[in-house]
Write a structure and sequence with these properties.
Blueprint (H helix, E strand, L loop, with lengths): L8 H29 L8 H13 L4 H5 L4 H19 L2 H23 L11 H24 L7 H11 L5 H15 L14 H31 L4 E8 L2 H12 L4 E6 L6 E10 L3 H11 L4 E7 L14
Antiparallel strand pairs: 1-3, 1-4, 2-3
Helix pairs in contact: 1-5, 1-6, 2-4, 2-8, 4-5, 4-7, 6-9, 7-8, 8-9, 10-11
Amino acid sequence: MTKFRKPTFRQVLRGTKFYLFLAALALVRALSAYVFIVPNGFAPSGITGLSSLLYNAVLPFNAHLADTVFNPAITALVLNIPLFIAAFVVLDKKFAFNTMFCVVVYSVFMGVFDIVDMPQYAAGTDNGIKLLASLAGGALAGISLGFMLRYNTSLGGTDVIGKLIYAKNPISDVQWLIFMCDAVIVIASGGLGFIGLDMSHGTNVILTAVLSPIIFSFLSQLTTSQVADVLQSGFQSSLVFNIISDKHDEIAEHITREMHRGVTIMSGVGYYTGEEHKVLVCVVRRKQINTVKRIVQENDPAAFTFITKAREVKGNGFNNQPGI
């Protein structure tokens, strides 16, 4: 039987800081939902979107029921309970616990905001204000999501569903399954446009009323995804140059001398010609792309070059020198 070891003061302090940080991220996500998403009837991805959809669908018919049973603070927690149980059984226990912690804190903040009647950025019928609300709400959600994913946690919902599917079937295309789940919620938000709609106003008015929630929800979801991706991959994107040239030494020497970047040289054989060539691989910052192009053009105009984007780069010259 494993003997329980009392944690050290440093471990307790580190754990406290970590969960305070997760609480701050949950607060940011709650601000996004309460101030921008829910009051404007958006339903972006995940449990947050589904909670907003349920609340706004019930609100016009029974405000008391919407503010109690279908309050987003309650539905976000309740809808995640079966996912918590499955995550604890199937997935990493730490991930499951951290996710549960974030959802509980998120729900508490949502409830507190409702109790104190915190101001909301409600646009009404002004589509310009709604656009700003969708972008602002998506950006705040993206900041929270980006850092959560970096620390192996989430706010439940489709993220947990994706991990559960992958755990049982690693060859499945999880990202597409998550996208389809999120897309169903976004498309379902179009149903909110029918509430209180006068059908006698014509097809243009009906189409606008139905598509507007879908479009704004999609824009909010897209903004969340892009901001989270930047926070995960880093603010400075890098590019990978693949250069096939018989003047590899000259090109490599100039890149190393002028740009202080490392170059890897590999051997390759052209399938069509059967001739052997050298392949240079070099990772550079985006702002250095024109310098590399110039060096290649000056040394070997006939060189074959293709460029790919590096999502994340770690190592000498990239993780310790952000200014380069």
